[in-house]
Automatic annotation (TrEMBL):
ATP binds at residue 387. The keyword Membrane does not apply. It holds the Pfam family PBD. It is an enzyme of class 2 (transferase). Keywords: ATP-binding, Kinase, Nucleotide-binding, Serine/threonine-protein kinase, Transferase. It comes from Rhizopus microsporus ATCC 52813. Residues 3-97 form the PH domain. This is non-specific serine/threonine protein kinase. It comes from the Eukaryota. PANTHER family: SERINE/THREONINE-PROTEIN KINASE SAMKA-RELATED-RELATED, SERINE_THREONINE-PROTEIN KINASE SAMKA-RELATED.
Length: 631
């Protein structure tokens, strides 16, 4: 990393979507670049190569302000004093190649922007327009934070597209059962009700009633004022010729040429950016108008996204190169062929006939992926749960193999333990799991008006023990919520459902996929930033709010609005914080810290004062009394 020449906090205003906003940024000047960060230890969110600078001049927008004009963008930087101002200007000017760069011409297939005067987005893909019009996001929301609206639209659209490609459906809410063939929570309870023939509970929405997803038209329950607000947002949105599968605001996956070969440390960033962009509209340097951002905002957004992606790619390449020189990397399951996946599966299952070991007692659930049975072990006469699946109907067998492997490696008192698995013939898969007759924590919350702080602390402590075990193995669960925390009749608390879990390797210390349940998602996931194990800590904090208030924050909001609120509000507020102890409020604060660096990890939480209130597991047994009434 080149030496830092100058660094410090400044106020920054850029052309583009944020043209009217001054933001506090940590600025770092190196010999060839100027980078902007949210804080001193934050990741780079803006990059300017000094060779792109056309001029550095003082302006009067603020008392101590100067303007940097680059090839495709103008930056305004405000300092605290004349001395600081001229120090920055001199250092930047002396290292830039002022006047040597000519203007660059760009063509853009999609021009995404926001007009703060009309309050309307322009150039949205058709799919985004329909999602926005069918959501509860208002014109006021868009005006307050247009970038957050674009973030959640991209998030939702990309998740939907991924499911269409992988599962042949666009129903985001139905993704769970397909993504995890081993969802146990719905059926881990005594078989005291008629056998349902229903689909397994979806992960992308809570099992309790929640508002429907956004559709092509506004719900009939929407007020006329809401509809008017949404129409105002969309009235100036021209139709895009991009298909409904389009997922990025300014990047056409089919038409944009992708550079061949690896991105290397030596590849010029500008070259990579130019190869990713089509050019169709000239933006001459001498026509720059710092107050007219509508013409260039899509280009600005695209270049920033590409810079961030390329920098991340370089970091990954560097890390992978270091690791590959030390050891051979095991092939990821997701890259295997179906034959390789089946070979891997046969290597992990037990040989023989499962009917010689287990006797199925009663079917307690059935879905597209198979049936769930309560069974008895013939060796120990104890109850077990059996998921029986027809692999020929599974679109992604590698997810099932991944889940079995994770469960086999994750034996722990606070994890629903994998017991055995069998493959009968080529397609009949049996997975045998520990039986949790108490069912999901969701049912406990729904059937008890209140939980004491001691009971909440006990559930949290047991869950954290399980999370700490997973995190110590570099495994992120990625879907912690009350639906996936199971109890037995003695009050034992265990984490279930590993269909979404991810293994962190030396090559990928952070992940950037959008997996989980919206209402429990950490802000860094919603904003599609790279994340680590602390996403589970955020979800744990949301689950604690579930136990306090009987539901997670924003459950009454439809998913897109909930994502917007998570992205903009950050830490959720409590309805009655005055009713909580100082220790519990402190626990929530360290779990639900938007700044990931300040958010506690599982090891730190184990020593938190609130968890000292935890009692013996027996205090949870009374919460299951409602089960007796269901007989």
């Amino acid at each position: 990393m080149p030496d830092i020449i100058k660094e410090g906090y400044i106020s920054l205003k850029e052309e583009g979507l944020r043209a009217w906003i001054w933001s506090k940024r940590y600025c770092v000047l190196r010999d060839q670049s100027l980078t902007f960060h949210r804080n001193e230890a934050g990741q780079c969110i803006g990059l300017l190569f000094l060779k792109e600078i056309g001029s550095v001049t003082r302006v009067d927008l603020k008392p101590y302000c100067f303007e940097i004009t680059a090839k495709d963008k103008t930056y305004f930087i405000a300092c605290k004093s004349d001395e600081e101002l001229y120090s920055w200007m001199d250092e930047i000017y002396n290292r830039s190649s002022v006047g040597t760069s000519g203007p660059t011409n760009f063509v853009h297939k999609v021009h995404v922007g926001f007009d703060p005067i009309t309050g309307a987005f322009t150039g949205l893909p058709d799919q985004w327009t329909r999602l926005l019009k069918g959501s509860a996001i208002t014109a006021e929301d868009a005006a307050k934070n247009p970038q957050a609206v674009l973030d959640v639209l991209e998030f939702y659209a990309e998740q939907t597209k991924r499911e269409e490609e992988e599962y042949g459906t666009s129903e985001l809410q139905g993704a769970v059962e397909r993504m995890s063939g081993l969802n146990w929570a719905k059926y881990m309870q005594e078989e005291k009700s008629p056998i349902p023939t229903v689909k397994l509970p979806p992960k992308m929405v809570p099992t309790r009633p929640a508002p429907p997803p956004p559709h092509a038209s506004v719900s009939t329950s929407s007020t006329s004022s809401d509809k008017k607000s949404k129409d105002q947002v969309l009235q100036n949105s021209p139709k895009s010729n991009v298909s409904d599968n389009y997922t990025l605001p300014s990047r056409d996956r089919h038409d944009v040429p992708i550079p061949s070969g690896k991105i290397t440390q030596d590849t010029p960033l500008d070259q990579l950016l130019e190869s990713k962009l089509h050019l169709d509209k000239k933006i001459p340097n001498n026509d720059h108008n710092k107050y007219n951002h509508h013409q260039k905002d899509a280009i600005d957004m695209e270049r920033e996204r590409e810079r961030e992606r390329i920098l991340r790619e370089r970091e990954r390449e560097k890390a992978a190169a270091q690791v590959s020189s030390k050891k051979k990397v095991e092939q990821r399951i997701s890259t295997m062929t179906e034959a390789q996946i089946m070979e891997k599966l046969r290597s992990v299952v037990s040989k023989g006939d499962p009917n010689d070991c287990y006797k199925k007692v009663k079917r307690v659930g059935q879905g597209a992926s198979g049936s769930v049975f309560v069974a008895v072990s013939l060796a120990t006469n104890t109850k077990v749960a059996v998921k029986q699946m027809d692999l020929s109907t599974q679109p992604r067998k590698e997810l099932i193999v991944n889940e079995i492997l994770v469960m086999k490696e994750s034996q722990h008192p606070n994890i629903v333990n994998y017991l055995d698995s069998f493959l009968v013939g080529n397609n009949d898969l049996w997975v045998v799991m520990e039986y949790m007759e108490g069912g999901a924590l969701t049912d406990v919350i729904d059937n008890n008006s209140t939980m004491t702080e001691q009971q909440i602390a006990t559930v949290c402590l047991e869950t954290i023990h399980g999370l700490h075990h997973l995190h110590s193995q570099n495994i992120i669960h990625r879907d912690i919520k009350s639906d996936n925390i199971l109890l037995n009749s003695q009050g034992h608390v265990k984490i279930s459902d590993f269909g979404f879990c991810a293994k962190l390797t030396d090559q990928k210390r952070k992940r950037a996929t959008m997996i989980g349940t919206p209402y429990w998602m950490a802000p860094e996931v919603v904003k599609q930033k790279e994340y680590g194990a602390k996403v589970d800590i955020w979800s744990l904090g949301i689950m604690a709010i579930e136990m306090i208030e009987n539901e997670p924050p924003y459950l009454d909001e439809e998913p897109l609005k909930a994502l917007y609120l998570i992205a903009t509000n950050g830490t959720p507020t409590l309805r009655h914080p005055e009713r909580l102890s100082t220790e519990l409020k402190s626990f929530l604060a360290v779990c639900l810290c938007v700044d990931v660096r300040s958010r506690a990890n599982s090891a730190e939480l184990l020593n938190h004062e609130f968890l000292k209130k935890a009692g013996p597991l027996e205090i949870l047994a009374p919460l299951l009394k409602f089960r007796a009434k269901q007989t």
